[in-house]
Amino acid sequence: MSQQQQKFPYIMVGISILLGCIFLVFFFLAVSNQPDYMPSQQQKSAEVQKLK
User: For residue range 15-30, what is the model confidence (pLDDT) as tens digits?
Assistant: First the structure.
């Protein structure tokens, strides 16, 4: 078995872990921030407008 063939699985595992971490970061950001068009956000903005 050559040196290149021994390195290949480790490189693929590293790339997979990196892509997985990037995906999880984007997923966390998407879940933690509620967009303005959600009904709960529309109710909050309507309450703020009433108070002003």
Answer: 999 999 999 999 998 8
Compute the distance between CA of residue 21 and CA of residue 2 in angstroms, rounded to an integer: 30
Rounded Cα distance between 8 and 12, Å, is 6
Q: How many alpha carbons lie under 13 Å from residue 16 in its C-beta half-sphere? A: 6
* Residue 52 pLDDT exceeds 90: no
Which strand (E) or helix (H) includes residue 23? helix 3-32
Which letter, b or e, does each residue of 35-52 get, where b requires 16 or more Cβ atoms within 10 Å of its Cβ?
Answer: eeeeeeeeeeeeeeeeee
